[in-house]
Amino acid sequence: MPEKYNPQEIEPRWQQQWEADGLYATVEDPGREKFYFLTMLPYPSGDLHIGHWYAMTPSDAAARYRRMQGYNVFFPIGFDAFGLPAENAAIKMGAHPYKWTLANIDRMRRQMRSMGAMWAWDHEAVTCDPEFYKWTQWFFLKLYDLGLAYKAFAAVDFCPHCNTTLAREQVWGDDRHCERCGTPVIKKDLYQWFFRTTQYADELLAGMETIDWPERVKTMQTNWIGRSEGAEVTFTVAPEYLPDSEAGAGDLVVFTTRPDTLWGATFMVLAPEHPLVDRITTAGQRADVDAYVNQATRMSEIQRGALDKEKTGVFTGAYAINPVNGAYVPIWIADYVLMTYGTGAIMAVPAHDERDFEFALKFGLSIVPVIERMDERAKSVVWDGSVQDEAAFIAALQAAGIDFRFLEIADRGRFFGVPLESDAEMDTFTALLLAHLKPGHWADIVGRRWQVVFDDGPMTLDSIIADQAIINRCRAGYELMRQYRTTMEMWQGTPWYRDVLFHHDYGVMINSGELSGTPGDRAVSATIDWLEARGRGHAAVNYKLRDWLISRQRYWGAPIPMIACPTCGIVPVPYGDLPVVLPEDAEFLPTGESPLKFHEGFRNVKCPQCGGDAERETDTMDTFMCSSWYQYAYVTPYYKAGQTIGPDDTPWDKAQGDYWLPVDQYTGGIEHATMHLIYTRFFTKAMRDMGLVNFDEPMKRLFNQGMILGEDNEKMSKSRGNVVAPDDLVQRYGADTIRAYLFFIGPWELGGPWNSRGIEGVSRFMQDVWNLVVDDGQPAGEPGQKETRDLRRATHQTIRDVTADVEAFKFNTAVAKLMALRNTLKAARSTPIYGRDAWNEGVDSLLLLLAPIAPHLTEELWQRRHPGPSVHVQRWPRWDDEAVKEDVVTLVVQVNGKVRGKIEAPANIDEAAARELALAEPNVQRHLEDKVIRKVIVAGGKLVNIVVG
RNA sequence: GGGGCGGUGGCGGAAUGGCAGACGCAUCGGUCUUAAAAACCGAAGGGCUAAGCCCGUGUGGGUUCGAAUCCCACCCGCCCUACCA
Prior knowledge:
Oligomer: single chain
CATH architecture of the domain at 726-884: Orthogonal Bundle
Number of helices: 31
CATH class of the domain at 726-884: Mainly Alpha
């Protein structure tokens, strides 16, 4: 009875053996090329999830592959151990966050060991260890020294129930509620610490050219950084609305990406929180403005959310002066302008900005087009009864070749709709109108031109004043026009016009003073030059990216090493006093407020500068701070533990860092695209500027794995009851089978649903590999040359293909090809080839290629065949180009692109011979009967396509 | 609204200009067994009685000797982002 495959016995045995042998101990070796392979560090939530396996085991396999290729591979691991869940547990169950976290880490370490990964546990780092966060705090001080850390007021998400600010990732759902208690968050102004990530905005953009990261991540980061070029333009509040202010106090700076539309700025909008609002609001508007500001603040509680929400706003009563044409423009406030972007104030150009257009129509504000339409289209309407003699007018139109149609609006009757295609046509049409219009009547020309043609001549919509003049005349002339407040609103009342009234394209400037006529491709730069020459504005760049807010009002994080002294102001903790340690005797309040705030021993401190009584900063740092530099900490974790450190230290051993850094390959989930992955890039650039590293990017290559889903194709969650527990699976199938199954499920970057029956096939595969080595075959007779060659071909093709697959992280097809080799070897087991060289080569290759995927099984079998050094330190097999070659190919013959025959042919068949064979094939001949051969295409010696007519 | 990813047998998926469905799951038939399971062997996209032929990669068009693959338009699903001036 042959021995059974027993992973439950094999796997723990080898894990212990490898550890005893120091197989994965990190050895710096300048003689060997290094490879730093990193997987995003886990949060110690307590229990290992199959998602952890899905993220970690393929990266382990890839790291093992690099190792077998001869690289000195560094594959470290650690724990992202600060964060809110530990504090929640402390509040709920009374366990101290430190104890809770360490217990979880212990548990996870045990579970992680069952994966059989080659982690460098000798370099493990835990971010909540004081010897780790000593350096996190050191980085804070260094950033502060560089001017990259500053304290400022900011509106932050605040949970009124828990009484604490929340990180952005702790605000959940569309209604933006608190992760912990479900209460909707509000915005609150607090004095907070920031890092100047924006200082590196351009470099963060440019650096993406130099790294081999997924385009998806690069796109997300590009959008997140949101660079936009334009101009800052200074408007001024009209002096009569700020009578007692000194010069310059009424300046209202706006950022715009469309300075070429400046002449069309017919009003301004400030964010409700804008500091100028209070000062400029007139007495008459005070009540409305105050009500709106209050409501806007309350709105942010339930979120200004719903985007299809209709625009709201209030007039402040004040006017500003448009610096390009001196026009008085009303200043409004509205919540569609955000205080956090640009300057918190905009110039509104309703003719060429959709939001402003909507707002202007709603509130009856002037709309003045200043950019010509790209198409030449214009439209006109001549209302029924506005010409003296309709028959004559129609005849004149027809004589002039001007197209028209009769259209109708329900309550206003019939009209001529006249599409106008060219300037000449518009001129002719205008002349016709002047000749035929009844006194007191008019017709419009809109689109390419913006005119109302009255019986005494056209008026052009080219300014706010003209707008008022036109609409007043129309209102006076016709009862139905009284409902309209602006010319554009009147035109908007005719549905037939609507598709030509608005556009946001670049085009020739019109109604723009001396810049009128400037073509669209030069309009922006010409306007900026014009503004700069007059000191009214300048080119400017704006970013959506904001500075990184790192203050957290809670206990379980690295304390910010700062002190507030009533005499000296903000004073940094001296480097030599680091770490600022979290007090252990903290009391966790059910309100969720940070115990540090109430911890007298922690808070009360002497000022390092003057020695007087001072207060320690009680906020702690965002946990993304820890993960921004952990890949450097891994080099020599807890460097200089117990020692005093200074500003000129390096947080890791310099020589070892020079060898291992930077990270060659990083793997992790896409969810960190715009958070962790931007922060760590920012950190590395700052570190370069501190002189710590001489490279610009922390990770050369990045790969994002997908997510493993439940059997129901939904995200795994306890409430759905579709969670797959890895520990049970290890018990049942062994780690190797789980690993191989996760690899096999589909492309790693896509993820996919778990299938509890699918794993059986992989389990059989492992069993079969076992049997190939352990069971005796029945060799009989002498193997033929062809059999030998066929098996060698299968082996070497597999080596070639699996190498390419693993290189590209295509583990699913790698496993499939190894299964195919298994099938081949199984078939060969009962042939004379069993036990011969080709057989041994096949089995050994299978074990070597499978070693990164199923480390325990392959080690056990390798040792049975070749007692000695581990399979994991063997050379990755190489394929022989000769052995890979096919002797025969199946020549596919098509007639007009349809397969009509297949012929076995020698592999190196030349074109002429292939053509001849193809034409001779009987079924092909049938399809050629009575047809003329027009063309014969021979593709790659594999396929012949005969084109017949 | 903007950006991205995807749509191929009953299922997970292969194939990125040249034989569609590799590999596996499930299914069906057979061997073994009193029987079942396991294991092993074999079949299998749909249709037609068929050597063979027709139809088949979300839909419709196009490019090409040849398209799952490239181009255009559309439909559906998922993810990210969202009044960014």
